[in-house]
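Incident log, structure service

09:12 report received: a user says their structure output differs between two submissions of the same chain.
09:20 pulled the input from the user's history:
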Amino acid sequence: MSEKIKVGVSGACGKMGQAVIKAVQAEADMELVAAIDIAYCGKDIGEITNNTTCGVIIENSLEKALQEKQIDVMVDFTNPDLVYKNTKLILENNCRPVIGTTGLVPEEIKELENLSVQKNLGCLIAPNFAVGAVLMMMFSQKASKYFSNAEIIELHHNKKKDAPSGTAIKTAELMTQERKAFGQDNCVEVETLKGSRGGISEANIHIHSVRLPGFVAHQEVIFGAPGQALTVRHDSFDRISFMPGVILSIRQVMANKGFIYGLESIL
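09:34 re-ran on a clean worker, output below:
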């Protein structure tokens, strides 16, 4: 039997982090070797995720874990304030990042791509790991060829800090590859309440962000044309929906040296 992939999780005690811990432990070709979080430091991560010990103690220093442990892949689900620094740190310590934390700006993504190439290490950054969400983005890109008017509505839980979501930004980028400008025939708009029309992408796609308790991750892209409308929607009701994509990404960065932005590149 080939050697197992040694996986660490940064943000291990968060809801996404805990789901990743369980998913990794369920895979025969993977071994959880590190759990990093500022919460519950010193406790066994198994007590947090499954009410049973697993031998992996929660640490509060990502840098120390990377330097002291043999980690093949580090999965990061932390927060937008830390994601660039964390990803850079992972690569600099010759580990392969799988990044689900959103909030990276294009300049940061480009710098991380350059570092990945320089280090000759696999690196994957994905705004969304749900296969259905990726298909929603791909379908929206396809529809953009035929519809010149479109808007994006994304809905997330009220603990999500960044807006719009990484998924919405990536969706707009893919749609722009198909059509450079949307809503060209719209009238001149006047907002009586600032922000009513949402954020506006480079291609004039309006993006609306909803933050409410009870939601997990949801997005719809609405296309309009004379006499008709098309809605492409995806809903994640449980974080388990992201896990097949995370597991696929861990195997991908181990098997291939290179930088990947977006899960659609490996489906």
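09:41 both user submissions now match this output. Likely a transient worker issue. Closing.
09:42 reviewer note: The longest strand covers residues 217-225. The chain has a mean pLDDT of 95.
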